[in-house]
Amino acid sequence: MRILVTGGAGFLGSHLCERLLKEGHEVICIDNLFTGRKSNIEHLLSNTRFEFVRHDVIDSFKFEVDQIYNLACPASPPHYQYNPIKTIKTSVMGSINCLGLAKRVKARVFQASTSEVYGDPQVHPQPESYWGNVNPIGRRSCYDEGKRCAETLFFDYHRENRVDIRVVRIFNTYGPRMHEADGRVVSNFIVQALRGEDLTIYGDGTQTRSFCYVDDLIDGFLRFMAQTETVGPLNLGNPGEFTMRQLAELTLKLVGGKSKIVHKPLPADDPRQRRPDITLARQILKWEPAVPLEEGLKRTIAYFRGRV
Ligand code: NAD
Ligand code: UDP
User: Is residue 266 part of a domain?
Assistant: First the structure.
């Protein structure tokens, strides 16, 4: 197949492009390089089945493709809050452009949605049926509401125009090729520990997240796109749940060194807890994350060791 990946030079996108090429597909990657970088896809550029196009998904695009994966959107809070209006435009207009193209060329189209659609959840763990608890006017809203609106667009194009959609809600995912200045917690802690700096826990560190290793997630993407039983929304993530204090301590144990833990103010609307209910993914995709946190952290630390 010929497959378009938006945001293909980012962390997840570059792993997805690599995996699709391994499966024998042609891949067109479009990215404006806001948080992505060419070095993430450098090793793919010599492959004749791979093309990189520097383009912003806010502006329309046309490609003859069989499938579209829409990943373009900054994902780290400091980056999506840097230009919040641009963030919401990217989610909304990027989705409209992907859906319009999918409608025209009859491509199956995938949306990288997020566990942030559940906001600061009052139901725990979060099943797909939960509608969420999102502040519509806060600092995280440009991302959360942008992604919620994108989901609405996907389902309206599906109902109104029979566009063949797949919507996945991704829970915190980490691994090699995260940017060292990404700002998300796993890369922050690893980079800080490797540099011998203090690890910055925001708040008291009792808030929880569930961390999925990138290879597991990409495997879930491909299985989800290949099946025809459900269009989603489908949770993908690792149900292992950790406090930020536990993550900091584990990172320190694995990296070694003399870093200490320090506390910084908790950002506004920071969700207290998050863990995916992956019953649906288990049933339909026969999918289960295989890489435990400690193992995934070791692989990610090995990646960062050469770079920071
Ligand atoms: P990332 O920031 O590394 O990748 C995002 C990519 O999109 C970057 O390459 C960036 O340059 C590109 N991009 C941003 N705005 C663009 C625009 N207007 N036009 C074209 N390209 C643009 O982040 P990631 O972790 O790889 O996230 C990829 C997708 O997965 C995002 O849509 C994100 O919301 C979603 N997601 C990720 C996670 C996670 O834990 N990694 C969790 C939930 C959802
Ligand atoms: N966090 C932290 N220290 C950091 C970065 C993040 O304690 O250096 C916390 C953050 O406040 C949140 C959790 O770690 O409670 C996960 O943050 P991240 O930005 O990785 O993802 P998200 O909040 O979007 O799930």
Answer: no
Residue from 143, 157, 174, 213 carrying the catalytic annotation? 143
The answer to whether residue 306 scores a pLDDT higher than 90 is no
Q: Using the mean position of ligand 1's atoms as its centre, give its distance from the Cα of residue 74 in Å.
A: 4
What's the CA gap between 185 and 163, in Å, rounded? Answer: 36
308 within domain boundaries: no
Query: Sorting pLDDT into bands at 50, 70 and 90, what band is 170?
Result: very high
Asked, for residue 189, whether it belongs to a domain, the answer is: no
Q: Chain centroid to CA 229: how far?
A: 23
Residue 202 annotated in active site: no
CATH number at residue 102: 3.40.50.720
The predicted structure's pLDDT at residue 103: 98
Q: What's the rounded Cα separation, in Å, for the pair 35 and 101?
A: 24
Q: How many domains does the chain have?
A: 1
Q: Is-above-0.85 flag for pTM? A: yes
Q: Which ligand has an atom closest to residue 245 CA?
A: 2
Return the ligand number nearest the Cα of 98.
1
Burial class (CB in 10 A: 0-12, 13-18, 19+), 237: buried
Q: Does the beta carbon of 32 sit less than 6 angstroms from any atom of ligand 1?
A: yes
Q: Residue 254 Cα, ligand 2 centroid: separation in angstroms?
A: 19
Tell me the pLDDT tens digit for each residue of 13-44.
Answer: 999 999 999 999 999 999 999 999 999 999 99
Nearest to 304 by CA among 181, 132, 209: 181
Strands 67-70, 165-170: pairing is unpaired
Q: Is residue 159 part of a domain?
A: yes
Q: If you measure from the C-alpha of residue 107 to the centroid of ligand 1, how many angstroms do you get, rounded to a whole number?
A: 21
For residue 71, the enclosing domain spans: 2-175+212-239+275-290
CA 168 to chain centre: 10
- Pocket flag, ligand 1, residue 234 (CB < 6 Å): no
